[in-house]
Amino acid sequence: MPVQLGRHDRHQYGRHHPDPTTVTTSLFTQKNRQLAVKGPLAADTLLLLRMQGEEALGRLSEYRLDLLGTDADLDFDALLGQDMSVTLALAGGGERQFNGIVSEFGLGAALPQSDRLLSYQAVLRPRLWLLTRASHCRFFSGKTVLQIVLDLLERDYHIDVDNQCSASYPVLPHCAQYRESDFDFFSRLIEREGIYYFFRHAGGKHTLVLADSPQVHTAIPGYGQVDYKPWGAQLCEAIRQWRGGRQLQAGRFSSNAFDFEAPSKSGQQGLLARAKLPQAGELEQQDCPAPYTDAAQGERYARIALQAHKVLSQRIEAETNARGVCPGGLFRLNGHPRADQNRQYLVISASYTLHSDAYATVLETDAKPVFACTMNLIGHDVGFCSQPLTTKPSLTGPQTAMVVGPEGEEIHTDQYGRVMLQFHWEQFSPAPADKRLQRCWVRVAQGWAGKRWGSLFLPRVGQEVIVEFLDGDPDQPIVAGSVYNAANMPPYALPAKAAISTIKTASSKGGGGFNELRFNDAKGSEQLFIRAEKDWESYVKHDALTWVGRDQHLQVEGKQFVKVGGAMHTLVGGDHNQKVDGSVSLQTGKDLLQKAGMNFAVDSGMAVHIKAGTNLVIEAGASITLKAGGGSIVIGPASVSITGTPVLLNAGGGAGAGAGCSPTAPTAPLKADDGSKELA
């Protein structure tokens, strides 16, 4: 049965022409009117002439009001940001409210037929609209999308929220808002996750409802069923026009991602996610709507993308004068000649035109309907999903940032060599000290990165680094290099030492020492300089060849140990001079051969002992002389001369024995690190 309108609606279809001169007196009241405006001003300060508005799931509502008033001293600024409501009488009793804050207020066009009334215009928008007026550069770490948006809405803007979301959402290690309005940030996050919103209006306020499933929606009170009556009596609330059908859309969606902690899985389609609509065509979209590390999460993103296509493919447009219909509500259509159309629908958007039922003669002569609505619908079984209209900011160039870490730490990293960064734009709203390190780890690009091989230089706390963003995504920073600044100057004074290239480290913790590999390319002063602050170990598995074009100097302040496993050959083109302040021990396992091209001299400050196990042969081509004190024996080629005072033969006594030789065994050198040594 059609819903019957009340007696107040009968003004809207006839002509009612009160005397224009009496509009500002007897008619200037909202009492017993079907439309009224309520706000911070006294009753009847403003009267509503007409309202046009739009509402939609997942979109901001807007109501444009044409108002009448006699007060020429209204303070426009005082009205901005204040709650204001339009009330519409319902046929079955009660009222419907359209609430928002005053986002715009000013004078309207001059009124015909009256010089005593002023025309005003106001625009009402939800409190959520305030998010479009503010922008931030910040990030959130270790929170889900739902936690982020609730913080944003409730903590930052004190918006009344009814969270009806039932799905679970992944924790995001890093979620950046960069040079975008709070509303765009909010919108793109919920669009990506399949969350949407609508508003409930009551008590002069509005509540933001967050939803992610069809179960959130309920039948519209008093309008659970609406008849289709294109030619019915105008006093009946019904659907007047019904247009709709099907639209071709993609029926498949594929997504892929890369997880650096599981590169093999990523490279073997382990993170490839697909979704398909039942009875859909073969048109496929391939995209990466968001990074993910779990295939199930990727499939969820794919289903969300497909659901948005499904909403587009089955949309219906209708026109009605049923005053209760609103986005987010359900009703069942009755009486359509096509039986498949008579089912339950979800209102996803609506455009309204409301006209006052008693002020028509002020501006126009033809009375118009109090309420007219054009709405878009989908079947309740389709399931709503917002279209992803909000673009994520893309960072087209690099930034610099500062490496941060715990107090007192100079190097702060994890098992992947990642570091923590503080971006310069964080200075807009710096984190408190206890939350300074609540941020994500950021990967660091290296010259080489193999399987337990490559190059590794970790940026240290306090250094300024260059940050790129993978695919321009502010949620995927990566350190690409480092730069000097006034706090961290180059190792050598520039431009005076511009010919020097170096890799110079700093001992940690505390500094003071350094290792360095330095190249000096200044003409005439070319140098390769290597410095080890403590130990220098060189491990060569095959040959080590060194060529010195001029002199080589080796200075060891402590001890030197040399071990040669095979033969040792030393060729000296000139003199070979050695000086040992202590003892010299020389021991061979076999022969010891020495040959002098000219003279061979041995000078001992005390005794010289020569001992042979069997034979001792001393041979000279000319003579041999043995001398001790004043006595001597000279053996020549023709004679042997013995000189002594006296010369004794067989005089008794024993000859002195050679003391022999006990060389000190050398200490074996330590083995150089072959790369397997556990590092400190």
UniProtKB/TrEMBL annotation:
Residues 671-680 have a biased composition (Basic and acidic residues). Keywords: Secreted. The keyword Ligase does not apply. Residues 501-607 form the Gp5/Type VI secretion system Vgr C-terminal trimerisation domain. Residues 413-484 form the Gp5/Type VI secretion system Vgr protein OB-fold domain. It holds the Pfam family Gp5_trimer_C. Residues 1-23, 658-680 are annotated as: Disordered. GO terms for cellular component: extracellular region. InterPro entries: Gp5/Vgr_OB (IPR006531), Gp5_Vgr_C (IPR054030), T6SS_RhsGE_Vgr_subset (IPR017847), T6SS_Vgr_RhsGE (IPR006533), T6SS_VgrG/RHS (IPR050708), Vgr_OB-fold_dom_sf (IPR037026). It is found in: Secreted. SUPFAM superfamilies: gp5 N-terminal domain-like, Phage fibre proteins, Phage tail proteins. It comes from the Bacteria. Belongs to the VgrG protein family. This is Type VI secretion system tip protein VgrG. It comes from Chitinimonas arctica. The gene is tssI.
